[in-house]
Design a protein that fits this description.
Elements (H helix, E strand, L loop, with lengths): L17 H14 L3 H15 L1 H9 L1
Length: 60
C-alpha cells in the first residue's frame, strides 16, 4: 500500500506533540530510517486496523 514512487504521493501537513516528534527524530537518527518512512508505515498500519470500518462506510 505504501507508494515508493514520489510522483504518486501526496503531501499532507499535520501537527504532532513536540515530545512525540523528538522521539521520532531520535529514532530516525539512531536507525538512519527517514522520519517520513516511519510516518507512512504508521498510516498504513492505522488504515489496516480500520479497514472494516472503511468497508462498511463504502456500503452506505
Amino acid at each position: 500500500m505504501v507508494s515508493k514512487d514520489k510522483g504518486k504521493q501526496k503531501q499532507v501537513t499535520t501537527y504532532y506533540d513536540p515530545e512525540a516528534t523528538e522521539q521520532l527524530r531520535r529514532l530516525s537518527d539512531v536507525t538512519r530510517v527517514p522520519q517520513a518512512v516511519y510516518l507512512r508505515e504508521a498510516l498504513e498500519d492505522l488504515l489496516k486496523k480500520y479497514a472494516s470500518v472503511l468497508r462498511q462506510a463504502g456500503r452506505k
